[in-house]
Amino acid sequence: MLLKIILVFLLGMVLIGMVGKALFPGALTGAMRRKGLKPPVCGRCGRYVIGKTCACKKG
Ligand SMILES: [Zn+2]
């Protein structure tokens, strides 16, 4: 009885995962990729940081 409930629960989780993948293909990875591709912006002047430090920090 308990085993049956667990099996049904697991099947439901797998189904939800499959439906989610079918509806939103690469939604999570896409969001992560977007975050990774976002160029670093300086917190002080707001310009894109080229290299390790911004030009404004160098003085
Ligand atoms: Zn800066």
Can you put this structure into words, describing what you see?
It is built from three helices and no strands. The chain is mainly α and about 60 residues long. The chain has one domain (about 1-59). The structure holds zinc ion. The site of zinc ion has 7 residues, from helix 3. Zinc ion binds next to helix 3.
Summarize the structure.
The protein has 59 residues and is mainly alpha-helical. It is built from three helices and no strands. The radius of gyration is 22 Å and the shape is rod-shaped.
Topology:
Elements: H1 2-23, H2 27-37, H3 55-58
Bound molecules: zinc ion (ZN).
Residues 42, 44-45, 47, 54, 56-57 line the site of zinc ion.
> Low-confidence segments, ≥5 residues, pLDDT <50?
none
Overall pLDDT level: 79
Number of helices: 3
Number of strands: 0
Strand percentage lies at under 5%
List keywords for this structure.
rod-shaped; binds zinc ion; mainly alpha; 59 residues
